[in-house]
Design brief:
Blueprint lengths: L9 H15 L5 H17 L5 H16 L3 E5 L1 H6 L1 H11 L2 E4 L6 H13 L14 E2 L9 E2 L9 E5 L3 H9 L3 E5 L6 H5 L2 E3 L3 H15 L4 H10 L2 H20 L13
Helix pairs in contact: 1-2, 3-9, 3-10, 3-11, 5-9
Bound molecules: adenosine-5'-triphosphate.
Adenosine-5'-triphosphate binds next to α2 and α8.
Length: about 260
């Protein structure tokens, strides 16, 4: 679909187009499109920009990834459709494994996503087909399957767009979980060790920039950033930010001034 250059919602519509394209390529499922809608709503509320609370979380996430012994980036259909090259780049900088991890798991989709990521430069993609032979305790059905060379043995897992149940299970397995979720109230956001309340399309490029910049920092400096990080405070800041914005909007003029072109 052609989206005019001057359309006021152009960026948001372009993101939608990427997801629809991902749906056509069988990377994204119908439920993924609905999940994106929930995300868009929260993006509207935070102002569609990376806010200071997300910057703080991104800095801590970069420190955690750089300090990790065995970092893994978990990729679902929406993430693959929205930021495939960026995921590959972040994995390269942080020496992380990439693993396909789906809520609605089918072999066809796992393999389509792995192929898509390889086409975007990934040399290895775990979790597709027979590779997902290990299980996460406490979870049932296909959702518990993970790679024994990936998430199962990871110490730090980045889960853009994960569900709450799985985030909790990974935490209970002693892993540091970094979530990217626009909804600061979701179970994922509240269960993760570090929650980046931002859109994946902005957060992952920002993480690339930050990890590049922080790679040369001494270990002690990275450890200090992690030690001082408080995820509860970051989630509270996200909610306060939304409250402040709504408060300001509630006392400002909301109706648009439109020029009459009918005469
Ligand atoms: P939970 O189980 O964590 O409570 P949920 O049921 O609210 O999650 P899901 O349907 O599992 O949500 O996934 C949708 C989540 O992903 C929403 O919280 C939404 O805000 C978030 N989301 C969707 N698209 C994006 C995006 N592009 N960037 C960041 N977050 C997103």
């Amino acid at each position: 679909m052609h989206i005019p250059l001057n359309h006021p919602r152009r960026t948001s519509l372009l993101i939608r187009e990427k997801l629809v394209e991902g749906f056509r390529r069988k990377l994204v499922v119908e439920e993924g499109l609905i999940a994106h809608g929930r995300g868009e709503c929260f993006d509207y509320l935070i102002g569609e920009k990376t806010q200071p609370f997300a910057e703080k979380a991104i800095e801590a996430a970069a420190a955690a990834l750089l300090l990790a012994k065995y970092p893994v980036i978990s990729v679902n259909g929406n993430t693959a459709a929205l930021v495939p090259s960026e995921v590959v780049e972040l994995a390269r900088i942080t020496n992380a494994k990439i693993e396909v991890n789906l809520f609605y798991r089918t072999r066809e989709r796992e393999e389509a996503i792995a192929k898509w990521l390889r086409e975007h430069g990934a040399s290895e993609v775990l979790g597709a087909g027979d590779d997902a032979s290990a299980t996460i305790p406490e979870l049932f059905s296909e959702r518990r399957r993970v790679s024994p060379r990936g998430i199962l043995i990871a110490d730090v897992v980045l889960v853009p767009l994960e569900d709450g149940d799985r985030t909790e299970a990974l935490r209970k397995m002693g892993k540091t979980v970094i979530a990217i979720d626009l909804n600061p109230l979701s179970r994922t956001a509240r269960a993760a060790s570090i929650t980046i309340v931002d859109n994946v399309v902005r957060a992952i490029p920002y993480m690339i920039e930050k990890t590049k910049e922080m790679k040369t920092k001494p270990r002690e400096a990275l450890e200090k950033i992690l030690r001082e990080y408080d995820n509860n405070a970051v989630l509270q800041e996200a909610i306060k930010h939304i409250l402040r914005r709504l408060e300001e909007l509630s006392t400002s003029k909301l109706t648009l001034e439109l020029t009459d072109i009918s005469k």
